[in-house]
Structures are given as C-alpha cells and as structure tokens.
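During the second half of the funding period, the structural biology subgroup turned its attention to how the target accommodates small molecules. The most pressing case was iron/sulfur cluster, which had performed well in the primary screen but for which no bound structure existed. We therefore specified the complex as follows and requested a full 3D prediction, including the ligand pose.
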Amino acid sequence: MCCLSKEKIMRVTTDVDTLRSEIRDKSVRVIDVRREEDYKKNHIPTSVNLPLATLLSDDAPERVVKLVNNLGIDDETSVVVYDDTFGALASRVAWTLEYLGHSDVSLLELTYGQWNSLGLETDTKVPSITSKNHSIKLHPEIMATVDYLEKAKEKKDVILLDNRERLNFLEQHIPGAVNIPYRTLGTSEKILRSKEEMKRLLENRGIKPDAEIITYCGSVGTLSGLAYYALKSVNFPNVKLYVRSFKEWKNLNKPIDKQENAHYWDLSAE
Amino acid sequence: MTISNLKQTSPDSKLPRVNWAKIEEADNFAKTVKLYRQGKIDHDNFRRFRLQHGAYGTRMTDDYAMVRIKIPAGEIYPTQLEKIAQLSETFSIGSAHISTRQNIQLHWVVLEDVSEIMRGLTEVGLTSREACGNTVRNVMCSPLAGVCSTEEFDVTPYAIATAKFLLRNPLNQNLPRKFKFNFTCCEKHGMARIVDVGLIPQIRELDGKKQRGFKIFLGGGLGNKSFVGHQLEDFTPEDDVLYTSIAVLRIFDRMGDRKNMARNRMRYLVDEMGWEKFQNLVLKERAIVRATQSVIVKLDVDDTPTEIKRPITISDTDGKPTPEGYSRWIKTSTFKQKQDGYNSVFINLEAGDITANHLHALAKICREFSAEGFARNGFSQDIVFRWIQESDLPRLYSRLIEVGLANPGSLTMASPIGCSGTTSCNLALTNSHRLAKEIQRKFLELKLDEDDDLRDSTIKISGCPNSCGQHEIATIGFYGGGGRVGKDMYPLYQMSLGGRSDGDAMLGVNCMRVPAKRIIPVILKIIESFKKNKKSEDTLSSWINRIVRGNENSEIKSVNDLKQILSPHIVPPTKEEDADFYLDYGSDKNYHTITGKGECAA
Ligand code: SF4
C-alpha cells in the first residue's frame, strides 16, 4: 500500500481510465483550467474551474493558497488538471501547485477536446465545495528567476530549453538556449509522448538526466511548463521553470541571440 | 468500457502501393550524428553520409538541416500528407515546402532530430534516402500521366519501377554527381529535355502489332551552364529502357568528371565528348549490359490499373449558388482529363509553401473527392488532385475556400516558381522565394491569371546562378545577384527571356539585370509592350519567342529593343530617394551578398 501511494505521488500524467474510476470513488479533485464560459458549457464531471488567467492575475503564494483552499484542496488531496490547449495551461497550474508545496498533482493525459471526441461523459453541474486548508511549503528548487538563470546558464551542466516554435526561436532567443518546440513534446493523441520516445529524443539531443534543466517559453511559462512535465515524465530529477520567461528577459534588455542572414520567415505559409 | 479500445479511426484511406522506407536507416542516422558530434567522423565523411540520406545543410549554420522527402513519381497518399504535416509541426517550422522535383522539404530541422523525421516517414512508407548527394535523385513523372489527352500511354508504372530498381542500388551510390530522371506524359507537358535522362512514351506498329516504347533524351540539364538533351534513337522499346538507364549510369560512373565540381554533371561529359561519340558509347554499353545479364532484367512494371472508385460523397449543388470566383478558378486551375467527366485540380500554393493545417485539410479533401484516392505533386511546386468528378467541382471549390486554398491561377503565369533562396540555402544571393510570392500576389490582384494571352507563359526565379528555380526554361526567368551604387549594394536579378521545356525546348536568352524591387514593374511593362504589339493570335510566350529568335517585325524586333523600353525602369535611385531599393524582400537590413559553403541545394 505504501509503495502504491508513493507511485501515485510520482505520476506525471493520469490516464483516462484511472481518472474515471477516481471520479467514481470521489478520491480526486479535478481542475479545469479553461475559461469560465467554456467550463460552464460543460466539463469533466465533478471538476472545478480555475481559469489560468485568474491564477496568473496574481500568483503570489498567499493568494494562490486562497484559491486552492476555495477549490477544496488540502495537502493530501489528489489533484488532476486538464485544459484544451495541448496540456500547456494545465501544466502551468499544476506547476504552481507543486511550487506551493502540493505533491500529489498530475496532468490528464489528454485534452478536453480529445476527451470529448472519445465520447466520454461530461457534465454542466458545478460541484459545491467545502473550503479546505492548504499549507504553504514553497519549493524554490523548481523555479528559476532571472537572476538565478543568468548565473546558472554559464555553468557547463546546465541546459536551457526554449519551448517556443522554431521560427520564433530563430528570430530571437536567450543565448545558449536549445530549442525543443512544445509540439515535439506531445502527439496527436496525448499531451506527452511515450516515455521511450521522449527519452530517445532527448538522448539524440545530448540532453542527459544528470544535467540541470531550465525551461522557458514566450511569456508566462505555459509551453515550458509542459516541457517541465515532459522531462519529469522521464525522471529528470533537476528541472526548473523560468516562469517569467522570454517576455521578462526581453523587457530587462538582457542579451538576445538571433539566427542571422537568413529569411526563414518567408518559408512559412502562414 | 475502457478507453483503450475506443481509439478514433480515420476514414478509409488508400494505402501506398510501394514502401520506400527502411527503419534501420533512421537508427543509423541518429548514431552517425552522435559520432560526428563526438568528433569520431570527420566533416566531409559526415556530409557525404548526410546527403546520401536526404539531409541538406542550412544557410549559415551547422546546427540545422533540411530534410528532403522523395515522392517517387509524385504519388502521395492522404496518410503521407498527414504525417508530413505532423512532422513539420513537430520538428520543422510548421510549414512544408513542395519542390519542383516532386520532393517535399522540411526546413530548419535540428540535425539531431533528422532521424526522428526519418522514423516518422517509415510509418507511412516514405524515405529521404538518395534525395541529395551524388545519386539518382527522385524519379519524376508528369502529374498528368494517365489522364493526359495527348499521351500515348501512362508512364507512371515505368517511373515507379525505375525508382524501385535504383533506390539503394549499389550502381547509384557514388556517382560523379547527382543524376536526374524525368518521365513525361507527352511533348507538351514535360521536362524530358532538361534532365540527364528524360523519357516520353510513344507507340509504334511492328508487323501490325502495337509496341510500347520511349523517346529517350540524354545529357540535358539546367545549371551554371545549361544544355538541352539529345534523343538517343528514334524508338527505344520498353524492354530496353532499363538496359539503357543502366548503360548510361555506368558510363557516367566510369567517365564522369569527379574532380571539377563545376563540370561534373553528365551534360558536360556529353558536351566534351560530342553527342555522336557519347551516343555510340551508350548503344555499345547497352549491348554489353544486355548480353552480360545472366537473366533478363526487366523493370518490374506494375501495370494494374489504379482502382478508380467513385468516392462516397455525392455532390448536391442543387439550388446553391456557385461560390464567387468559381469560373475563374475552373479556368485557371483545373484540367480536363482524357477520361470523360473527370478533371484534375491544381492547388495553387505560394512558392510551394504549405502549412501543416493545410496539409491536413488536403488529405481530407483528397479522400473525399479523388476517385483514385491519392494526390500527386507536380513540377511547379504544387499539389494535384486527379479523377475529380465534374459535378463535384463546385463543392470541392467551396471546400478549398473554407480552408483557404482556393487561390486561382495554378496553371497560369500567376504562379511563379521561386527556389528557397536566402530563406535557407547556403548559396543564395537573394530572396528569390519571397519574390515569387510577391509577384504572385500582384498578378492575382491584377487578375492577370485570367488573361488568356499570358496563360502559357511562366515566371521562374533562382536565388543564384544555380537554377534550382529553373529560370532558364521560363518565358521570363530570373537569377539573383548583387548590384552596386558606389559602396552601397542592392539585390538584383539577371533576367532571361524565351526559355521553354517542351518539344521546342530552348534556354532563355539573357536580357538585362533588373533590381529586385523593380522586377514587378518590369514584368508589367513587358506585358504592356506585348499588348501593344501583339498579333491577334499571339500569346506573350509566342511573341517573346519571335523576339529572342529575331523573327519579330513590329516596333520591338530584338531583345535589345525590349531592353531600351525597359531601361528607364531599372535606374537605381539614391539611398536618400528610396532606401527600400537597397533592401531585399523580407529584410530590413541593407543588402549584402553573403554565402556559406555550398552543397548545391538543388
Ligand atoms: S543554390 Fe539553388 S536553391 Fe540555392 S539560391 Fe541557388 S538556385 Fe536557389
């Protein structure tokens, strides 16, 4: 039993069958991070709504813990998060909970859209929640600030991952970053690739589990949040999210690299 | 109910008839990249290996590659379009590029991810093997083969069989230089005379019996120096096609120039030796090849006719108004097949670029509408659906509007070809790719696609003298370079006129250098002069033809006369007058010619 519960804590994604049985057992708190109007139309039964924008409007721990309490989550609650944006928004919410000190949080293995297209049950009912009391035990080891990043990225065993799309990366990126676009992380059926594939991909790129990895993306750490979980899914122990990401880096006028002398944008048919 | 048995099934898809892939090659590629990065394989060896497997270098960097996916004979299936869409989003820029040689290219791929693309391709039977390097490149086949009303027979099975015979064949792994085959449907629609081996089907009667065979052209090609191919003999019986190909490859392998990079295509060998000598050599070699085969080697031609099914969707257009622009689109983008009631539809893409979403949409539309169940890519950076029921055309058009692919003009002068240029090619001097898009937008805006006089003319643009954009066979062709005013540089193009690749194949005649930002006005001025001087039956192409051959008798008699008329348009302004003149398309920095080490990204 003890091993089982440990395994549960470690899980990065929750598969559909498991979630459905946990919903039946009432042993899970499901968070829908889509916009309120979408949530109201329908959602996975028993799920509660925490739109990412609400969280991001002020993600100071003191406020986040209030939001979490109001969703009926305490330190022991098993939480599963989902979105309809290939897992990136859900990742950012899950990561925030982890940062707050909540260990039992995972991502639904697919998006709400895929859930729907599989014909699985949905609901319009908003569950009534009894507020709970969550503690604050911050985990700074999973967060990178700009100061931290600036020092760390000069070290040899630190790898900086940029998870934006290729053209954006070519146009501008933090010097020394390696580009793994968020699309590389998932498949058309799942928000994350199989472990075996993910491992092979990282290995090809020379990204080793013993390195410290810092992920970033365009603005608020969503795409890079997904990368954070992709790396966790293959047991990379030391991964940090640069939450304020490239937007902050640019605003602070930090150095930027660019792939020069090529007009790659003109290859795009967008 | 468990979820595992609930997987979505995609609608019935026709499966590819040939599996070109080999999964070991993906593993091997990944391993070799690692060894290269560890310094255990030197740069030159790695480069050769990489090219053999279809990965090019990229402009100004060693970190990225371009993966060229071969589509032998141009046959591409819906599942393959979808896979390429997915791979482009995952490992490339979210768009793919359809080339002029029936390849589909993924650009700006991290070198370490190339093996993942190869792995993905094996799932749908595709390969990039021998898409680059000194090998036989993708074997091309007219997108109209099988449906063209002027063809003698469908050459597709021969093209496929040739590709099958040569892929991974030791004969073709280390030639002096790349080698190109092109199977054409008829004299009108082909490129048979501008490749190493070009074939046009013909039928002769022998003792009252009909016999299939080919006209085979050898030693043509475009490049820094271009040549029109020579016909080997009046009639090459189908059984001799493979022997002829082997003979030619063996001669080239033995005698081709392996030292001088600039002169090692087969056309130079033919040129140096003289055609008659080369011709004799081929005929002798063919006799030897034929005699020394212990068994008769034949092309494995699979002649089973493609199954033509009426797709389930039946159009119901009753009462619905035809969507706007329909007749323009029909006129400029569709082709009536020899089979009554069927049409081929050419999808107009800007310089061959297509997004992942569009590829997905096309896969779906193909399944729904094409009675043969797969698509082709053509010779002009396009995708072609064939076997479309006439009555389905309005609905197909509406679908294309919905997904944003209904631009008219595919089969007209309004869809110029542009090589990749400075968007990715190491040798490029100008952004030929973007220029092609700019011209297309202008032409469509002016509705020039509807002008019958312009219909059979072409515009083709290369970003340097290397002709990947095939400028020499264009009615109006351009290749990029740099010009100078004092110490300021500006992008310009050498313009050639009157090139063509049909039965009267000839290479364009150099006319003048035109600054990049003056190309559009210059083309419009040419059209204006044509309209003023044309005879009633003239098309732009026939008019230009007379001019370049010196047979014209109106006010403009020669290329020189035309130059006079155009010259006011090309005078460089000062930087103060027009700073934009000094920028290339797609760039906000002053123009300089910058090139890296070339791999001839043809
Ligand atoms: S080498 Fe080919 S692709 Fe590159 S710029 Fe020249 S013509 Fe274009």
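Two results from this model are relevant to the next phase. Chain B has a mean pLDDT of 91. The two ends of chain B are 54 Å apart (CA to CA).
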